[in-house]
Specification:
Blueprint: H1 3-12, H2 15-19, H3 26-34, H4 42-47, H5 52-58, H6 62-70, H7 77-97, H8 100-108, H9 119-122, H10 126-140
Length: 145
Amino acid sequence: MPIAIVEEVARKLGGQRVLGTVVRSQADLARAIRNRLPLTALKGLSQAGLSEQEIEKFVIPQRTRRHRADKKQPLTIDESDRAVRLLRIQTLSEETFGDKDKANRWLRRPLTELHGESPLDIAQTEAGARVIETILGKIAWGAAA
């Protein structure tokens, strides 16, 4: 993943103020995930265009989120990883299409090459996210995806 994408993902998560550290590399981002993201980092997903329902489906159920907020607990490592994965795919699609709205529409559109599923659905797993990154790479290079 290009450094610019890593830095943009970190910025969308709230940057140093929210993450508690400067993120300049994939290793820095991995460390932030292992240290568990604060719940406030989820605001970045909303601001990037993910709906509350999508955050609930792909990252953390609303009830669990409220429970964590009451106890002032961060996301788990798995939840942190899922949040970063979705934001990484969203950021990469935004860079590929050059437009936030266009990127977010593409992420939700069922694609034939994904057997009628949307990129957002496929990106629920790391293996699926890699498939979406490959498709975005082909689009960026002008190949038929």
